[in-house]
TrEMBL record:
Residue ranges occupied by any Cytochrome c domain in the UniProt entry: 176-261
PROSITE patterns registered for this protein in UniProt: CYTC (PS51007)
Pfam family for this entry, one: Cytochrome_CBB3
Any one GO MF annotation of this record: electron transfer activity
Keywords per UniProt: Heme, Iron, Metal-binding, Signal
PANTHER family: BLL4482 PROTEIN-RELATED (PTHR35008), CYTOCHROME C DOMAIN-CONTAINING PROTEIN (PTHR35008:SF9)
Classification via InterPro entries: Cyt_c-like_dom, Cyt_c-like_dom_sf, Cytochrome_c-type_DH
Protein name: C-type cytochrome
Annotated signal peptide: 1-16
Superkingdom in the source lineage: Bacteria
Keyword NADP: no
Amino acid sequence: MKLFLLATLASVPVHAATIAMEDQSQLQPVARSTAAAQFQPPQESELPDNAYGKLVKQGYALFVDTKRLAPQFVGNGLNCSNCHLDQGRLANSAPLWGAYPMYPAYRKKNDKVNTFAERLQGCFQFSMNGGTPPAADSPEITALSVYAYWLSSKAPLGVDLPGRGYPDVPTPAKGYDLAQGAEVYKGQCAVCHGAEGQGQKVGDSYVMPPLWGKDSYNWGAGMHRINTAASFIKHNMPLGKGGSLSDQQAWDVAAYVNRHERPQDPRLVEGSVEKTRLKFHANDGINLYGQTVDGVLIGQGIR
Ligand code: HEC
Ligand code: HEC
């Protein structure tokens, strides 16, 4: 574990045994063959023209346009679909059809069995930096749940389908390298996400989402883990060229992205980054929260 504190080293070794995913036990190692036939969610043309179909459409709209349609629950510049690509349909991009049939499920993150509504509330609180999330019986959670249910039509219940989540990318033998990550970022990411990770806006809305800074996911979000970001990036980025980075490049650039400041972890313990690191980050995968890089304490938060 000590090795993680030496984040200033060119290369930071990462030991597989120290990775403790916060996620529910059902996610744990099922060999996922990407070659296996993927589950196919229904097409919009199959939606019935009734009250149910209307609610599905509302959930879809909220999922892709979250910031604009539910501003009171979004504290950054993101939409759900920024991390769950293709409207929550894309395999290996934590698709909703992979998630919905797997709840209720135990999550280490809050040490209890979470309903699907509670799982959605978690994404509002952390990924969307939204403060108090919408109530479980709110119109927002209801519409999003109905949308996820519809995408899961004919999916088996409680089966970990191929394409669920962001499949793990093996930890590179030499760990990750922040300097190499900066190079990958400059060469393959900055064109869309901006040299300072700030994204790109047209009017008030982001057309390219920010990767760090005040409008990005907060320090409590799953994406702040380098291993999770590496998995997302490897399968989905650069946009339209998923799978083109090597595992090493994915880890390096994930570490580079996640060494940058973002909104504070809302679970902050007694105002202390160190206490928060011990309670919530020390055993949450690979992350830099509360560590020192180039003499700077990471995880101080930004508004
Ligand atoms: C910054 C990226 C990001 C944003 C934005 C985001 N999520 Fe997530 N979401 C994640 C990550 C990371 C996970 C964890 C996946 C894992 O560990 O494999 C996740 C998991 C989930 C899951 C559970 C997936 C499963 O298979 O168990 C659901 C459901 C979900 N998100 C819904 C949403 C909704 C709804 C929104 C918008 C309110 C949203 N997410 C916004 C990154 C994001
Ligand atoms: C061609 C433009 C483009 C390039 C190049 C690109 N991205 Fe993205 N990226 C996007 C878009 C657009 C989204 C949101 C996807 C959506 O909403 O459908 C996104 C989403 C993301 C997200 C999740 C959302 C967020 O803001 O946190 C991360 C993380 C990310 N990209 C990292 C990277 C990294 C790392 C690279 C370089 C290896 C990269 N991207 C290259 C366009 C791009």
